[in-house]
Each structure stands twice: as structure tokens, then as C-alpha cells.
Design goal:
This protein is about 35% helix and about 20% strand. By secondary structure, the chain is α+β, with helices and mostly antiparallel strands. The protein is globular, with a radius of gyration of 30 Å. The protein starts with a helix and ends with a helix. The structure holds zinc ion. Zinc ion (ZN) binds near residues 403, 419, 421 and 424.
């Protein structure tokens, strides 16, 4: 290795060491000492150095968490020690019986126990060889599990390298926190995908994704509870797992009697809502591993441990009515109105029903008696119909929005009906924020607090209302001085001279993102032509599928939306593209692959990439036989040599520009 290489290698090692330490502080200890920004800077530097020196990449590098290719199926792994499930106790009596048996079989005077929280997740085994994570395996049937290493590697609280170079197997629970769970479900609902029933299902679905890139977007977490080879005590094992760099749940207790176990149990049954993850009981284990071995296991479960389940938080009550809530995105959500009932210490009057399919699935009708359950969502849900009422009546989803009277529509394959009117008061706040966003009309001064006031004081009834606001009206609002009112008006005014596609994006047509808006603006050139386009014409546009075409078509046919567009036109907003060009002619790089290397004089890499992509080409990071062009600037790297070797055409900046 040359000395320059050695310096690079040292820097890479140093970066990895720092990143590992910060990941441990952030994800395991929850005590970060640098900002997210500073962390990103370290990671970027590492990624850049590794990209330039691919031969120095190692599998345990923190940059390699999401590296794996999507799998076709999961290989299996036979456990050397079976991963048994635990016996359950549903009452104090059952716990006491178990403890009596333990003392008897152990032939001991006294037995110590470790009580831990029973997290509602998925058990996995992490196999480390010489300190490196080599396998992550699901419990499977307890004898043979599925190898899901690629997905396990994406979990940031699981280190790819332990603090010591030891070979161990660490078992624990993978779970999804409640905050992350709710966010994931909201995103799925937005995207028209079905919601996960509970965090456990969401975690299971994520862990069994064949594509690790999907698992990487779900913020899964991990708590360890067992390690092999074992130390003499379970309490020591837990400390050992922490010392190796993994998380162990901090809520645990060394108990000397059943009474102490019960204290712990009752405490957490009361306090479980204060945690950001779901627990469904307490796990009690004999602390001494020697006694554990003496007690042994049945074919199903160990005799030295038991799961004491919490009482289910269920109740029955009568469904009085179903009313419709219109959300910020215009989604119509049915909500159950219930006869008030006590559940887990609070009075419950409402339960969510998610969507009309859920009502049908439950076979629910008004006046029925229903079984309620409180789980991961703060709002309880209806589990089943307990008794059909003689005077029951079916519920019908409305075909008009209960807030604005606008038409509602349920696209094929989606579970949710939405109000289509972009002037609906229920959607107004969201519509204004979207309109003002950076990718749309760039009205930076219009934040959430201001939008709330504008809507609540009825100063604005749709986005066109922004263009009629006066300095006096703005100054009357809370926390708006003359200066900021002036700035805001200037920004609003400036949005009149932005590109036409921004208006199309800003309108908030469902499924129309920035890129689609640009395609539409280019293809149709004006709002008039777009409004007159049939659904078939829309579908014929490159990159516009049937679902998108229908969404655009329906939106533009809505009388409320047409009126809104007229008002926007009257307010002086752009309704035409200046550069009307047919889509096809400019795709000079259609199907061509580029690799960039070195520094270009007049262009940044991002700009060059954009120019290529706009013309239908693709930019990849490494040179292969499939590469069509290498665009080389000054100080090109090894990519240029490789391109020469493979006979790939090399362009300098001037030649590249000539092709545009
Ligand atoms: Zn509406």
C-alpha cells in the first residue's frame, strides 16, 4: 500500500470508529453528543472516501447497513439451542403455582428472579463471529429460523461490530416504537395502502421484507435479553449485552420473592401507556443459570421462565352512531360514537373505524353491542360485534363531503374515500401549506402558525385568497409585525412570476408530484389544454399511468376546482408554460448510461446529472461494459482508466455540451 493509500485508509478507519461511537450514543444510549448535521458530515466523508476507494470497503463499515440486494427467499438456520416460547400465566395464582414448582424442583431454600418487560415484538437471534455481525435469524418454529441478516443490519441500535472481538449469540426482541408505528400507518393511508393492525405486525412485515431498502425505512429497534455463552446469572448476562454495545430494556428488577414480582407487574400494568412501545406482560426468569439448567425444559418451553400476561384492556358497549370525520387530506374516516364506558382507567366515547371496509369486515351495524380494545393506538378500536341489536340499522358512507358538500371519490384499489374539492374547509390548512411549500410557490413566510390564524379568522377560504390579503389584515394577526407582513406580501407577489408547473404541483392534485407536474406543464403547455384533455389523452402522456390520469381528470372536472383555477388566473398566476416543447424530441440520451468522474469546470455534478436525466439518460457510479459514456473533468479517478480499458466513449465537458 502506498503512503497516500495508507493515509486514506487511516482516515476511513478513524471515521468508522467515530461513526460507530456516535451511533452507539444515539441509538443505544439515547445520549448523542453531536448534531444530526455533524453526524451526516462524518457519514458523507466516509461514503465519499469509500466510493473513491472501493477496495477499502468492509462489510462492517457503518456505511454498509443497507447494502444487500433484494432476496428471492430467506435461507434457514437450525438453532444449536432451540428458541423456545414461554409458558403464560394469566393470574397471580398461576404465577404463584409456577414459583412453588420452581422452588420444589430446584430443591433450594430461596430462588432469585429477574423480572423484565415483555415487549410485543419478534424474537431474533443475532450471531456474532469475532465481534462481527454474521447472521440475524428469526425464531421461526423455534428449531429452525429464517436468516434475515440484510434486514437486521438496517436496525441502527444493532451494532455491526461489537465492542469486543468475541463470538456470541445474542437473543432479543425486535420491535417498532408506537410513534414510528403511527407515522408509518399515516403514511400508508396517504399512499392508499392498508394500515398495519398493530406494531407487532408492522415489525414482522418489515423484518420479512425481501428488499432490505424497505426495512431500512422502518425505524425498527432492538432489546437484548439472552446471550450465549452465558455467565452464571441472568442479571449479569443483561449487563454483558449492554457492555458489548447493544440495548437492554432498562426497566427490570431483581426480585427475591413472588411479592416483589407482583409489585413490578402491577407497576407496569399501570404505567404501560407511558412507554413508546407495546408491552403485554412481564417475563420472570430464574436468575441463577445453574438452577435454570437443573430445571430444564419441556418440549415446548423452559421451566425456569414464565410470561405473566396483563389483563386485556377490553370492554363491551353499544354503538350509538357512526359519524364521518374529514381529515386534512380530505380522507373521510368513519368514527364510532359509543355509549360511554370505562376502559383502562379512562372513559371511552369514540372508537376509530378506519374506513368502510373495516365496517364491512366487522359486520357492524348501528345499535349493535361491540367489543372494544385499547392497544397501540391511543384511540381504542372495535374488535368484534358481540350481539346484533334487534333494531340494528346498516351504515352508508356518504357520497358527498359532510363538510363542504363536494363530491367524494374512492379510487380503485384504495380503502379511503376523499373529498375532491380543493376548496374544502377541512383541507384548507393542508392546501395552503402545500401551496406555500418550497417545491410549489415558495412562500417561505407562510408557516403553520400563520395558516392556522388565516383559516380560523376566515381571512382565506382557498389558496387564491392569499393574493387578496392586505398589509393591515396581516398586521392584525398574532406575532406578525409590519416588517414580516411586508415580506410575506412580497413573497406572495413573487409567486405570480414562477413557472407554470409549480402551480400545477401546488394545486394538490392527488398523486401529482413535482415531476408529474413538470411533465404535464411541458406536454400540455397551458391549463386550458390540460382541462380539455380526456382521460385517454392523459394516459397517453409518457410516464402518466391510468391511476394518475384518472386522478388528474377527476380533479379538473370538479366545478369547485375549476372555479378555484379561474380565481387564481384572475389573481395573475401563471397558466401557461413559456417553453412548450413536445416531450420526445429532447430525449437525446434516452436509454444511455453515464458515469461522471473528476471535476467539471462549468457544471456541478448535480447539474450534469440533471441535464442527463432530463434528456432521458441515467447516471451510475461505476464503469462497466454497459456504460455508454464517461464524462471526465479534471483530476479524473480510476474510473477513467477503467473506461479506457473497456473501450467506453470518453467525453470532455465541451463535447458533452455540444450533445445537449
Ligand atoms: Zn369537502
Amino acid at each position: 500500500m502506498g503512503s497516500a493509500k495508507r493515509t486514506v485508509n487511516d482516515r476511513i478507519e478513524e471515521l468508522r470508529r467515530q461513526i460507530r461511537e456516535h451511533e452507539h450514543r444515539y441509538y443505544v444510549l439515547g445520549q448523542p453528543v453531536i448534531s444530526d448535521y455533524e453526524f451526516d458530515q462524518l457519514m458523507r466523508e466516509l461514503q465519499r472516501l469509500e466510493q473513491e476507494n472501493p477496495e477499502l470497503i468492509t462489510p462492517d463499515s457503518p456505511s454498509q447497513r443497507v447494502g444487500g440486494e433484494p432476496a428471492k427467499e430467506f435461507p434457514t438456520h437450525p438453532f444449536s439451542r432451540p428458541m423456545l416460547s414461554l409458558e403464560n400465566a394469566y393470574s397471580e395464582e398461576e404465577l404463584k403455582d409456577w414459583a412453588r414448582r420452581v422452588v420444589q424442583l430446584a430443591r433450594a431454600e430461596e430462588v432469585d428472579y429477574v423480572a423484565e418487560l415483555k415487549i410485543d415484538g419478534l424474537s431474533v437471534a443475532l450471531i456474532y463471529e469475532n465481534g462481527l455481525l454474521s447472521k440475524g435469524v428469526t425464531r421461526g418454529d423455534g428449531r429452525t429460523g429464517e436468516v434475515v441478516t440484510g434486514n437486521v443490519r438496517t436496525i441502527r441500535s444493532i451494532p455491526l461490530r461489537l465492542h469486543e472481538d468475541v463470538s456470541v449469540e445474542i437473543r432479543g426482541e425486535i420491535f417498532l416504537g408506537l410513534k414510528a408505528f403511527r407515522q408509518l400507518n399515516d403514511e400508508r393511508e396517504q399512499a392508499g395502502e392498508p394500515r398495519f393492525a398493530n406494531p407487532r405486525n408492522a415489525a414482522a412485515g418489515s423484518l420479512r421484507q425481501l428488499d432490505p431498502a424497505i426495512a431500512a425505512r422502518r425505524p425498527l429497534d432492538f432489546y437484548g435479553y439472552a446471550i450465549f455463552p452465558t455467565l452464571p446469572l441472568q442479571s449479569e448476562n443483561l449487563k454483558r449485552i449492554t457492555k458489548l454495545g447493544l440495548k437492554v430494556n432498562p426497566h427490570r428488577k431483581l426480585c427475591r420473592s413472588v411479592e416483589e414480582i407482583l409489585d413490578f407487574y402491577h407497576h407496569w400494568e399501570e404505567q404501560r401507556d407511558g412507554l413508546d412501545y407495546e408491552i403485554d406482560g412481564v417475563v420472570v426468569k430464574v436468575n441463577s443459570i445453574q438452577i435454570q439448567e437443573k430445571l430444564g425444559s419441556t418440549s415446548k418451553s423452559p421451566r425456569w421462565a414464565i410470561a405473566v400476561k396483563f389483563r386485556p384492556r377490553q370492554a363491551t358497549t353499544k354503538l350509538l352512531n357512526i359519524r364521518i370525520q374529514v381529515g386534512r387530506t380530505g380522507a373521510l374516516t368513519p368514527v364510532a360514537v359509543l355509549e360511554p364506558v370505562q376502559l383502562g382507567g379512562t372513559t371511552i366515547r369514540n372508537a376509530t373505524l378506519h374506513n368502510e371496509d373495516e365496517i364491512e369486515r366487522l359486520g357492524l351495524q348501528i345499535n349493535d353491542r361491540v367489543l372494544l380494545e385499547r392497544g397501540g393506538d391511543v384511540i381504542p378500536k372495535i374488535v368484534s360485534v358481540v350481539e346484533q341489536a334487534p333494531d340494528r340499522r346498516p351504515f352508508q358512507m356518504p357520497s358527498r363531503c359532510p363538510v363542504c358538500g363536494g363530491e367524494v371519490y374512492r379510487p380503485e384499489g384504495e380503502a379511503v374515500r376523499r373529498c375532491l374539492s380543493q376548496t374544502c374547509p377541512a383541507k384548507l390548512k393542508e392546501a395552503l401549506l402545500h401551496w406555500a411549500s418550497r417545491k410549489a410557490m415558495k412562500i417561505d413566510g407562510l408557516g403553520e402558525r400563520l395558516v392556522d390564524q388565516l383559516v380560523e379568522k376566515h381571512l382565506v377560504r382557498d389558496v387564491s385568497g392569499l393574493y387578496r390579503l392586505s398589509q393591515e389584515q396581516l398586521e392584525d394577526l398574532e406575532r406578525v409585525g409590519p416588517k414580516s407582513a411586508e415580506n410575506l406580501l412580497r413573497e406572495i407577489d413573487a409567486s405570480r412570476s414562477l413557472e407554470f408547473w409549480r402551480l400545477l404541483f401546488g394545486l394538490g392534485i392527488r398523486h401529482v408530484g413535482e415531476r408529474t407536474a413538470q411533465i404535464l406543464a411541458k406536454h400540455f403547455g397551458s391549463i386550458e389544454r390540460l382541462q380539455n384533455a380526456s382521460q385517454e389523452e392523459l394516459e397517453q402522456v409518457h410516464e402518466i399511468g391510468p391511476k394518475l390520469a384518472e386522478s388528474i381528470y377527476r380533479f379538473l372536472k370538479q366545478p369547485e376546482n375549476r372555479e378555484l383555477i379561474k380565481r387564481l388566473e384572475a389573481s395573475g398566476l401563471p397558466m401557461k408554460s413559456d417553453d412548450v416543447q413536445p416531450d420526445r424530441e429532447t430525449k437525446v440520451f434516452e436509454g444511455k448510461t453515464f458515469v461522471l468522474t473528476g471535476t467539471l469546470q462549468g457544471l456541478s455534478r448535480e447539474e450534469a446529472t440533471k441535464l442527463i436525466e432530463q434528456r432521458g439518460g441515467r447516471v451510475t457510479s461505476s464503469v462497466s461494459k454497459k456504460t455508454n459514456f464517461v464524462l471526465a473533468g479534471s483530476d479524473p479517478g480510476s474510473k477513467l482508466d477503467k473506461a479506457r480499458k473497456l473501450g467506453v466513449q470518453i467525453l470532455d465537458e465541451q463535447q458533452f455540451r455540444a450533445m445537449l
